[in-house]
Specification:
The chain is α/β, with parallel strands linked by helices. It is 29% helix and 26% strand. The protein is globular and about 50 Å long. The protein starts with a strand and ends with a helix. About 4% of the residues have low confidence.
Amino acid sequence: MVLESREHDAGSATAPGIGGRRDEPRPPLRVALAQVAPRLDLVTNLERHLDLIQTARHNEAQLLVFPELSLTGYLLEDLVPEVALRAGSLQLASLAKAAGGMDIVLGCILESDDVRFYNAALYISAGRIAHVHRKVYLPTYGLFDEHRYMAAGDCFRRFDIGADSGASSWPAGILICEDMWHPSAAVQLARQGVDVFICPSASPGRGVTDDHGLGTARSYDAMTRTYAQLFTAYVVYCNRVGYEDGVYFWGGSRVVGPDGSVLAAAQERDEELLYCELDRAAVRRARVAYPLLRDERHDVNDAESDRIRNRRARA
């Protein structure tokens, strides 16, 4: 299947950047979102990734983002150990080599040395795995059964897009699907100074709204806009499409600007390669207009967290 490619510009590349001189503009970040329909087949998905990497490189993307578990498919259950990869696997090495100077975020089952299996998003840069986020919140309700087959991650850490390439870097953090439904996760990354939230997702269509839309689509629209505006940062949300064991995944990948406006959006249902340029000046403008991060009272939050934790320990 040939993906439709669409282009969006998030703003001028000549405006001043955060903390920089007004006569020294910092370059934008050209992002591609691969809204694809993974199969429950590692070999097929690997070939698809290699094709899309080539296409995104041809279109001069600097960062290519895939959905959650893009290399394996989502409803794995007992297949988890069979498709799990080690960090030094040949499959991941081939993707890193194919990427060249372009960075990638992709999803896979990552196996640890002590034989634990994680729903992980890998940031690959300059030919190596530069950052790993292991999904912290594993949904185990309704049609979800992740905690039965996978181990949970235990941290949210910042990394810097482009730090290994010699270009101007962007502080970023990853939230995988269910992680987004827990505001404390985004808060942890915001405290570390991220400018870009990268959110790979495998969200199935659930619920019908009054206007006959999908409840999940409406929820993620509200969530991505709210996080972007509250944390004055970009939100790059990449959801999968297609059917898997009768479950429908709705797509709706998007880039939301730091003012909460949707800058680029993929269609629901269809595969698509979506491009958008992130402008540093937009982050600066939002933080000048809404100094929410500057005014955040971390001392109060920490003190209250300590008080609640101590009270529970005494109970």
